[in-house]
Amino acid sequence: MARPIRRPSATSERILDAALLGFGTRGFEATSLDALAAELGITKQTILYWFGSKDGVLQAVVERMADQLAATIEAAVVRSASGYDRVEAVLTAVFRLGVRQPAVLGLLRELSRLDSVVAGPLVAGIDPLVDRAAAFLAAEMDAGTIRRADPRLLVLFVYATVVGAATEVEAQRAVGYEPSVASLRRLRRELFAYVRAALAA
């Protein structure tokens, strides 16, 4: 029997916020509904009322995250010029998201270990953006502003580089970077210079 559709409320949004943090930092399997309920000061039955099951919570978190990522990237594209400026605008948006909400990008990594059915809504939400990014890079390659390569792999490499640098705090510390506003500015500046050099024709 299908779970009844309920209109979002302050309670359901709080549950999704806590679930995103738990799934994105501790992992899906390591985050129980009992733990989420205790953190929120509600009962497990309240979570089940809104989402039906733990899988239902994850599904709702993924759908909301797909919408957020799509909106973030789309806004960056609309505000930017052409050429490398557009690449940098999108990278800046994703970098900021990774720094401000590392659980979002942590959940992306977690989904790669989960059932593809669960990740479906996220893939569906991101696929058009990947297609658009690949088409943009292909056009820039034809114009001679970006080096020629497989555009879809280039999207993957650039995304993995930026997200990894933004979210891997332990890796930052291993090379002597203590996260702070100043160090993150420097990290972003050096990272984007690296990406620009890697994409140069």
Mean pLDDT: 84
Total count of strands: 0
Element-by-element helix/strand order: HHHHHHHHHH
| Number of alpha- plus pi-helical segments | 10
Supply the helix-strand structural class: mainly alpha
Top-tier CATH class of the domain at 62-199: Mainly Alpha
Low-confidence stretches: none
Main sheet attributes: strand count, strand direction, barrel closure = none
Question: Could you give me the name of the CATH homologous superfamily of the domain at 62-199?
Answer: Tetracycline Repressor, domain 2
Shape: globular
Q: In the CATH classification, which architecture of the domain at 62-199 applies?
A: Orthogonal Bundle
CATH fold topology of the domain at 62-199: Tetracycline Repressor, domain 2
Rg, alpha carbons: 19 Å
Through-space gap between termini: 56 Å
Give the fraction of residues assigned to helices. Answer: over 70%
Note the beta-strand portion.
under 5%
